[in-house]
Amino acid sequence: MLSTPEHFIAFGFGAGLAPVAPGTFGTLVGIPFFFALFWLPWPVYTAVTALLFVFGCWVCGASSRLLQVHDYPGFVFDEIVGFLIACIPLLPGLQGPTWHLAIGLLAAFALFRLFDILKPWPIRLLDRHVHGGLGIMIDDAVAGMAAAGVLWGAGQI
Prior knowledge:
By secondary structure, the chain is an all-alpha fold. Helices cover about 70% and strands about 0% of the residues. The protein is built from 7 helices and no strands. It has helices at about 5-10, 20-35, 40-65, 75-85, 100-120, 125-130, 130-155. The mean pLDDT is about 90.
């Protein structure tokens, strides 16, 4: 499965090959990505995350075409990017005074996985009706936005 660069990246550098819960393992790979980007000013962090989303559309679409399977369960690059989106409220300058980074990361992880697994509206609609690389990426991006919204709201209390 990791025979091409497209597969290697789409499979989250191997995390998507986990025998159980590949999405959870893919989300775990998002943690070092977050720490690598955490120190950037938040506009740069969001721009890099947006570029990773666009890149993910291409790489997951390419991997999907090579495998001839739409949204293979082992594709977890979308979870990495979704988690980065979920973590936006934790960035310096955006975090509320009540957030501690470790608690915030655990909350972002749990909320993102919850939205990604349950796929409430409109996430389920996007998951079912948008295809190709964009379809692979978009439901996780929206799950990340939902998680970020909850985190941001909780940080304002």
